[in-house]
Amino acid sequence: MPKLNLVYSHEKELFIANSQKERLETVNVDFDFLRLSQPAADDKISSSISELKKEWGLKEEWFIRQLGWFYDCDFDLNGWTAYLIRYPIRPYSTPEKWFAVSFNPVSKQLKNIGHELFHQPFHLFWQKKCEEIFKNIVNPEWAKENLVARDLKEALPELLNTKEFNLSEEPDNGHPESGEQFFRHLIRKYYRDHGPFTFEEFLKSIA
Predict the structure, then answer these.
(1) Any residues with CB less than 8 A from the CB of 77 and at least 6 apart, and which?
(2) pTM score over 0.90
């Protein structure tokens, strides 16, 4: 089974920071871009990657199999890279097969990996179907995507808080947006009522 590539790239760190500059300034008004002018210290990189590889490696195959079962797909980690970065936002690119992981205690990094990977099969196998299902729900004019499908996608990592997907003791609470939190509530309720379920089962319950 392909493995997730865990690396630090100063070039990639700078690229992500520059592409997300407005968002970074929004979430952290004191963020210092000059701090990124030099790469992270070698000892910080090696210790973080070493510990993360060890802990993630123990759960990687099991977690990817769980994702495949949940989404009823053949998703794997072939070509996927997780880039370590020194700031608190963690974007990803499904077409380019990468996502960001902050330098954090390993429990938070494991939750970070699980959260970002939960999004990828949704984009690859289910997003178009969900957008079709929810196409008649009116979105604001400024919206660049179907916001209901987006909120659903962001809510699905709620399942990281269940024993079937749990990677660490760090809870996944998501974002405060009301749409996402409403779907998270529905996910918790469906899990309480039915136990482990597939995405298709849940989608049929809300469509």
Answers:
(1) 1, 2, 3, 4, 60, 64
(2) yes
